[in-house]
Amino acid sequence: MTAEDQSDLSQDEPATDAAPAQAGEDTQTGEDTPSPVTPGEVPVPQYDLSREAIRNLERELLGAERTLRRRDVAAGAGVSLLSARKLWRAMGFPNISDEDVAFTEKDQDALVTIIELVRSDKVSENAAISITRAIGQMTDRMVVWQIEALVEEMAAQREIPDAAARKALVAELPDLIEPLEKTLVYAWRRQLNAAVQRLALRAESGLQASAEGRLGDEDDAPLPLARAVGFADLVSYTSLSRQMNERTLAHLVQRFENVCAEIISVGGGRLVKTIGDEVLYIAESPEAGAEISLALAKAFTEDHLLPSARVSLVWGRILSRLGDIYGPTVNLASRLTSLAEPGTVLIDASTAATLRDNEHFVLIPQKARTIRGFGEVHPVTLARGTGTGLILD
């Protein structure tokens, strides 16, 4: 066994193993060749995507020239190559060889920052890797999302092909880096503050929300958090998507996500993830979850561009890990979605019990259904009672 194989993030001795690691690869881009324009065709703008232009952009993004190999970075940070590889892999970096000059001093600074959290006992090695993986996965998805949104905007506004829009974005990206970076840091701080406020509120209230509607004390519960878990599923999405071209389908999906994100946010919930034609969300209380669910069902019923949606909601305990949620509550909510009628919200009997005395909601019992993994379930249709529900701008 090599020294590398024996090391971890808290050790100071760099290793000497030559196994593949994770890092960015060099970009090789040739000169752009103008393409001929036929009569009547809209000229496609030409952009400087020469090798030098790409390298200048890379230097701005990476903060410096690539001058270091992976072993240089690990040694400079005072850790084994294995430890560095663990973090690079968690960050989602691709493989490179021992000879590739792929890193900058900024890479070394970032590695030291993460490692110091472990050395100072602020977090464990496993926690550091998990946090790093969260950053890598979330920023990767965010960057892809932003690029596609910008490309689509450029193609539509300038009436140019998709390929030309992508070249335009690369050429104009230097002007967008700073505002995008500032917005990212701002949003992260605001979201972290919101999470802190939720933690403080729950601590001050004695974790009352987590005890509502479910048996067992918080400390004795098999799953730590009680949440309202909801699903919204577009009706006939599969058949509709087969009839649409790429751009129309993209607009439908984007509109679906935008409507869901706005309503869930206004209702004080959190959008956990979107899976094609389905969205998963949570809320801190059954009442908040019910308001969000009713607002979603109403919004899609009234939207002339989107099909209606089936919505479900279950109040119960969950496990929150890796930015996702798990547990029987999530599974039951998913199963109920398929049983709901288009434009309606379906809940289970236990969730209905927590809302029974609330005049804002009307509960309509349905016939018992057998659901795989849960046996006989007594679903209840949730409808609007008194009040106006969520107010959207």
TrEMBL record:
Domain Guanylate cyclase: 228-337
Residues passing through the membrane, by range: none
SMART domains: CYCc
Pfam families recorded: Guanylate_cyc (PF00211)
Ranges for region Disordered: 1-49
CDD domains tied to this protein: CHD
Highest taxon listed in the record's lineage: Bacteria
Biased composition (Acidic residues): 1-15
InterPro entries: A/G_cyclase, Nucleotide_cyclase
Record's protein name: Adenylate/guanylate cyclase domain-containing protein
Organism: Arthrobacter flavus
